[in-house]
Amino acid sequence: MTQATIDTLRWIRRFHAAPGSPIRLVCLPHAGGSATYYLPVAQALSPAVDVLAIQYPGRQDRRAEPGVENIQDLAAQIYEQLRPWADRPIALFGHSMGATLAFEVARLMEGDGIDPAHLFLSGRRAPSHNREERVHLRDDAGLVAELRRLDGTQSQVLEDEELLRMVLDAIRTDYKAVETYAYRPGPPLAAPVTVLVGDDDPTTTLEEAQGWRDFTRGAFELKVFTGGHFYLNAHQAEILRVITSRLAFA
């Protein structure tokens, strides 16, 4: 096994390979999240769509590796691993921090002459709507309080002190990356963009989500669901229908 293959296996999880699919969907997790969050998506979409889930360093089997504190640096590392998979069209789905990463990966793809088939940006405001946030500077109790507020980490993890110690460093690193993210001006994307958001998301208003319209010259749509930041946990079937219908025309 070559080093390049080993690196790819560390970064990319292909839970239900679909080698006959005409398109790939790359899924990028939220802050503190892992590739396994998208296991149900891979199960549901295979074999029509070949789903690749990204595993960031600093969590689960990559727990011993240092996290990446800069969004652009992390996007560049992800794109380096995705390049060999560009033998067929690639769409990107990212939730929260993953949405910002998907956007930055798409910019790298287009700069390299590879047009993303579609971008699905979930639970994240456009770069034009910046907020001053410092969650990553809080103590452990303050960080856990934020996780409870967003209800994004399974309650058994928050209640298990040992498990919590294992994930807090990765969560803090991810929060630092997204909270210190600074958009670097450039041309809008050519790719079509679908933005998904919960109507009660404390991190993203509908106006902030609509702001993504200025970052593509392709088709744009905003899909609003009931719920908070992790609205997608209760709307999986609806979101999968959105994804499959858009990818059918990619």
Describe this structure in words.
- It is a single chain.
- This protein is of the alpha/beta class and 250 residues long.
- It has a single domain, classed as Alpha/Beta hydrolase fold, catalytic domain (Rossmann fold, 3-Layer(aba) Sandwich), CATH 3.40.50.
- It has 9 helices and 7 strands; from the N terminus they run H-E-E-H-E-H-E-H-E-H-H-H-E-H-E-H.
- Helix 3 crosses helix 4.
- The longest helix is centred in the last third of the chain and has 19 residues.
- It starts with a helix and ends with a helix.
- This is Surfactin synthase thioesterase subunit.
- It comes from Streptosporangium lutulentum.
- Keywords: Hydrolase.
Summarize the helices and strands and which ones pair or pack:
Blueprint: H1 3-11, E1 12-13, E2 24-28, H2 39-45, E3 50-54, H3 71-82, E4 90-95, H4 97-111, E5 119-122, H5 140-150, H6 155-159, H7 161-179, E6 193-198, H8 206-210, E7 220-225, H9 236-247
